[in-house]
Amino acid sequence: MADDADDAYEEPLFQRVIEYAAAADRDIVRMVSGHPDWDPPAALREGLRAYADGDPETFQYPPREGLPALRGEIADRRGVEESQVIVTNGAAEANYLGMAEALDRDSGAEVLVTDPVYPYYPGRTTMLGGETTRVSVGDNGHVDVDAMRAAASGDTAAIVLNTPNNPTGAVYSLEAVAELADVAADVDALLVVDEVYDHFDFSGRFESAVTLDRDNVVVTTSFSKALGITGFRVGYAVFPADLVEAALTRHTLVNIAASRPAQAAVLAALEETPPAYYESVRDTIRGRIDDFTAALDAAGAAYTTPEGAFYVLVRFEGFPGTLANVQRLIDDTGVAAMPGAAFGETYDGWIRFSLCTDRVDEAADRLAAYFDGR
């Protein structure tokens, strides 16, 4: 199904819902966006303080590809060459660079995405002059490899995936991702894999696409979610060697470089933060998933149980996931969430709730009371 309008680019529903909730004349439990409410690692704060006391020379432009020490740390962790790593303005820019390189290769103008899909992928496609084709996911929100294969053609420039997935919570198997790399290669396309939720795998099955070591696979991610620092805007992309220079040129023209103090703080966090930090955050999210879904059970609602990331899709009988209904929930319950329709047609009857709040129990109680009374 191809998008025949620029709605995904022209109409950022995230912002519309956030602004509607901000204007509400009541207390709101905000479950719209993936804005972490947990503390970042102590080493990150310490690294930022240390940077602030540094020599003024370190306050100037960093190398455009990123601080060497940070790129080296990333490369060591991911098992890739440092030369393949470009530090970016968050995962958003990393993903943009991967999609732009795909569309610049003159191998087509079509971008295949799943449905449902994070709406900024179609938006970027439109901005880059491409055309989005959505392919419905299969059972339990997992990518349908056969359907993707059937949709791919000589006009396909890229297949874009997100795993662990927003909004379904599915964690795609490495075998499925490898098959899609083959599908992309068969039509001379790139596979762009967004792994921004890689630290939020509750299935134990997540394996990064970088382990495939394919010359048509670009992997993007950031530290925004894992370290609880969405405002720092530090991400990166791992490119095949022959695509690095073109991607770096685009990165330089758009941004010059990513923030130097933010990169320094992230490096300090990576070097000093123990695995226990990440596990404690996962434990927090696990508890919120359990609490929220238990309350939904009591309310008789249908819902998805995420294998990864921190979103739950919910379907309330007779209450489809439209923008109007999400606004109604804000007005009547004081709970703000995202309409499922914002992510495509496959889950347009559902509403997506982000669990980045310690008020999950309160939100669930408000929703249960509201739907019990309908």
What distinguishing features does this structure have?
alpha/beta, Aspartate Aminotransferase, domain 1, Aspartate Aminotransferase, domain 2, 2 domains, 4-stranded antiparallel β-sheet
Task: Write a structural description.
- The protein is α/β, with parallel strands linked by helices and 374 residues long.
- The chain folds into two domains: 7-39 and 276-372, Aspartate Aminotransferase, domain 1; 42-272, Aspartate Aminotransferase, domain 2.
- Helix content is 41%, strand content 15%.
- It has helices at residues 7-10, 13-22, 42-52, 68-78, 90-103, 120-127, 145-151, 174-186, 244-255, 260-272, 275-299, 323-333, 360-372; strands spanning 29-30, 85-88, 110-115, 131-136, 156-162, 190-194, 217-222, 235-238, 302-303, 311-315, 335-336, 338-339, 351-354.
- The strands form three sheets. Strands 2-8-7-6-5-3-4 form a seven-stranded mixed beta sheet, sandwiched between helices. It has a four-stranded antiparallel beta sheet with strand order 9-10-13-12. Strands 1-11 form a two-stranded parallel sheet.
- Helix 2 (13-22) runs parallel beside helix 12 (323-333) and helix 3 packs across helix 10 (260-272).
- The two termini are 35 Å apart.
- The mean pLDDT is 94.
Highest CATH level, the class of the largest domain: Alpha Beta
How many strand units? 13
Q: Number of folding domains?
A: 2
CATH homologous superfamily (4th level) name of the largest domain: Type I PLP-dependent aspartate aminotransferase-like (Major domain)
Sheet/helix structural class: alpha/beta
Number of separate helices? 13
Return the CATH architecture of the largest domain: 3-Layer(aba) Sandwich
Principal-axes geometry comes out as globular
- Rg from alpha-carbon coordinates: 20 Å
β content, as a range? 5-15%
CATH topology title of the largest domain: Aspartate Aminotransferase, domain 2
Largest sheet: 7 strands, mixed
Mean pLDDT: 94
The N- to C-terminal Cα distance equals 35 Å
Describe the oligomeric state of these chains in a short phrase: single chain
Order of helices and strands: HHEHHEHEHEHEHEEEHHHEEHEEEH
Enzyme class: transferase
Keywords: Aminotransferase, Pyridoxal phosphate, Transferase
GO molecular function: pyridoxal phosphate binding; transaminase activity
Subunit structure: Homodimer.
